[in-house]
Amino acid sequence: MSSTRFPQRRRTSAGEERRRQIVEATIRLLARHGPAGTAFTSIASEAALSSPGLISYHFTDKTDLMSQVVEHILTRLESSLAARVAEAGGDPVAQLRAYLAELVRYQDTHRDEVAAVWRLLATGAAEGLAGRGRTTALPPTLLTDILRDGQQRGVFRVFDVAVMAQALHCSAEGYRERFLTDGHADADAFTAELTELFIRATAP
Predict the structure, then answer these.
(1) Which domains, ranges and CATH numbers included, belong to the chain?
(2) How far apart are CA 11 and CA 75, in angstroms?
(3) Interatomic CA distance for residues 88 and 98, integer angstroms
(4) CA distance 127 to 125
(5) Which residues bind DNA (predicted)?
(6) Angstrom distance (rounded) from CA 155 to CA 189
(7) DSSP class per residue in 106-175
(8) Segment-wise mean pLDDT, segments of 10 residues, the chain, 204 residues
(9) Distance CA 46, CA 117 (A)
(10) Distance CA 43, CA 41 (A)
(11) What's the pTM value of the predicted model, to 2 decimals?
């Protein structure tokens, strides 16, 4: 009897594309219906899969799938933030402006992703991610690094970096409340007010 009766799941380009297809279909369903609307049969239909069993081939269970959904979204966000901050050069004030602008812009242009993450967090469906530190409740290290660098250079006043980072990040995340309650929310206006507030708050 062959020992390869149950072949191992290898990560191929086709397999990665299928995983991405499933994750993005799940994001759309989460945004519209929340976790209750993400049965494998619904995901299979949204992703145009021939069978819900294909989801089980790529993900251990629903918890694994939801973990990958949040990982996918936050990794994309963090990469976008890092790129925008890098473009700002080495000035901490310019980097802070870039960070705030990009966090608001990303939410404005990726509304399904934002809604998906917050629906998961609101229902407790993302609790399994706590041990991996994957939660939007904590600002990324990138922001605390900007603030510490600014203090060391004397362009930011002395303050508790952890507290200020939390205030900055959570305030910018608050843009989701604007577009959820106002479909015509102005991301540029929100960014301008937020930036003015925190540039003043961090100034020496």
Answers:
(1) 13-202 (1.10.357.10)
(2) 19
(3) 7
(4) 6
(5) 40-59
(6) 25
(7) HHHH-HHHHHHHHHHHHHTTTGGGGGGT--TTS--HHHHHHHHHHHHHTSS----HHHHHHHHHHHHHTH
(8) 43 83 96 92 94 92 90 91 96 98 96 90 62 54 96 98 95 89 88 97 97
(9) 18
(10) 5
(11) 0.83
